Amino acid sequence: MSPVDRPASDLTVRARIRDAALAQFAERGFAGASMRGIAEAARVSLGAVQHHFTSKEALREACDAHVVETFGHRLTRSAADGTLGEPNLMARLYDTSGPLLRYLARALVDGSPAAATVFDRLSAEAEAFLSQTWPDRFPAGSPTARHTAAVMAAMHGGTIVLHDHLARQMGSDPLDRPHTTRIGGAMLDLYAAMGEFATSPTAQRIKDSTADYDAPDRRPR
């Protein structure tokens, strides 16, 4: 029976199990989570979990698909309303996707396929934003645009993976909804300062030194 053909009550049970699995995988990792623990968290029997998801791997695949679909939708919507690539994009995602981001944080460390898919989507959308906003600096399809977008995605994704360390420095977990705006505010301050620094003599010297280092006849052998 396909998901579309399932009765609403059945879908509700599946969603409850999936959400419990998201939390368990985020907290314990894939290896540390168990089908029994997921059943207890979802308040269903182990048999119910096995009925809807035949294995722990099948559960992870369902969680991965849910994360990819949800973030893909949010990225598409952000691209449509012109907010994609803004420093507070991740804060907006935090505000509505806390449990998914905690799962994604663990997935980025554990190497789940969902992490790679979400990162690649974020990079691709960021590349489109950069090329459309600054076509001369980031020509569409160029290595410069692709590499810059990937670094941008890594910077924002890093705040997810390192949220425990951010919590220690900020005094609160940035993945908790009441504190999500702290990431956006800090990113805005950082981007503003870096914009000023980018035009400074020091930044120009760094660029010149990098270009000199990258010259084929100057690279260390």
TrEMBL record:
<feature type="domain" description="HTH tetR-type">
    <location>
        <begin position="11"/>
        <end position="71"/>
    </location>
</feature>
<keyword id="KW-0805">Transcription regulation</keyword>
<dbReference type="InterPro" id="IPR050109">
    <property type="entry name" value="HTH-type_TetR-like_transc_reg"/>
</dbReference>
<protein>
    <submittedName>
        <fullName>TetR family transcriptional regulator</fullName>
    </submittedName>
</protein>
<dbReference type="InterPro" id="IPR009057">
    <property type="entry name" value="Homeodomain-like_sf"/>
</dbReference>
<dbReference type="GO" id="GO:0003700">
    <property type="term" value="F:DNA-binding transcription factor activity"/>
</dbReference>
<dbReference type="Pfam" id="PF17933">
    <property type="entry name" value="TetR_C_25"/>
</dbReference>
<dbReference type="InterPro" id="IPR041484">
    <property type="entry name" value="TetR_C_25"/>
</dbReference>
<dbReference type="GO" id="GO:0000976">
    <property type="term" value="F:transcription cis-regulatory region binding"/>
</dbReference>
<dbReference type="InterPro" id="IPR001647">
    <property type="entry name" value="HTH_TetR"/>
</dbReference>
<keyword id="KW-0804">Transcription</keyword>
<feature type="DNA-binding region" description="H-T-H motif">
    <location>
        <begin position="34"/>
        <end position="53"/>
    </location>
</feature>
<keyword id="KW-0238">DNA-binding</keyword>
<dbReference type="Pfam" id="PF00440">
    <property type="entry name" value="TetR_N"/>
</dbReference>
